[in-house]
Design a protein that fits this description.
- By secondary structure, the protein is mainly beta.
- 5% of the residues lie in helices and 32% in strands.
- It has one helix and 16 strands.
- Strand 4 and strand 5 form a beta hairpin.
- The longest helix is centred in the N-terminal third of the chain and has 12 residues.
- 43% of the residues are buried.
């Protein structure tokens, strides 16, 4: 059902159970954050994003944070929807930075520009995902959350597009979907019920101001230190 203005509901009216228990992946994530507190930092001494960090991402053009929840698309893939929200405190906007099945991303290692990563939604354990389905509002390429407890497929892989050698926290970056070459984007279309006011997130082929994202709130994993006190990014850690 279409509402007035630019607000539209999810086609088909599908809605997940927002009260269901948090998946084990989220519990595992929170547990690791507690037991590895010696490796955590609020980010004041790190100016780059590291593997294993749990972050929120802000679209700088539309001032919305990348978000997901157990609400499925009523059209297209029918997978878990991904949106943008203006709320700063919402825990459903946290994503963990992880490697791929072919290239591990060891905890605390700085993410390089051009590196392929997965972004896993902490509260549901599903990965940021895209494919050739059409997005419900703008008819661009659909972006969804897919997988189970952090494991999905090759369509969960994104390349970090940034300047220089490392993904710097203060830098606006782009995320290019490896399989389709499209960029994670927002152009301002807003949903009606059941997620009234949330903004569609989709993928587009051409770079623009709509595809720029900046790291905001989060917990950033420190790089490991060698016994001599120097940084050692080659030391193997369990993947976060």
């Amino acid at each position: 059902m279409q509402t007035s203005g630019r607000h539209r509901g999810l086609p088909g009216g599908r809605m997940g159970d927002l009260s269901r228990p948090v998946l084990p992946y989220a519990l595992q994530t929170l547990f690791l954050l507690l037991v590895c507190s010696c490796l955590l930092t609020s980010g004041t001494e790190l100016n780059f994003v590291t593997c294993g960090s749990v972050i929120k991402l802000l679209n700088t053009r539309h001032n919305v944070r990348l978000h997901s929840h157990d609400v499925r698309y009523g059209s297209g893939s029918g997978q878990q929807s991904v949106t943008g929200v203006t709320a700063v405190e919402d825990s459903n906007s946290y994503w963990s930075v992880r490697g791929t099945s072919d290239a591990l991303c060891h905890r605390g290692t700085p993410v390089k520009c051009g590196q392929t990563i997965r972004l896993t939604h902490v509260n549901t354990g599903r990965n940021l995902h895209s494919h050739y389905f059409t997005s419900p509002l703008s008819s661009n390429q659909e972006v969804s959350a897919f997988g189970d407890e952090g494991e999905g497929d090759h369509l969960d892989e994104w390349s970090v597009q940034c300047e220089g050698a490392l993904w710097r926290r203060e830098e606006a970056v782009r995320f290019r979907h490896k399989a389709t070459d499209a960029l994670l984007s927002v152009t301002g279309e807003q949903y009606g019920r059941p997620i009234h006011g949330q903004t569609e997130v989709h993928a587009m082929l051409h770079p623009s101001q709509h595809s720029l994202w900046k790291t905001m709130e989060g917990i950033f994993m420190k790089p490991s230190e060698s016994p001599a006190g120097s940084r050692d990014y080659s030391q193997r850690h369990t993947e976060f």
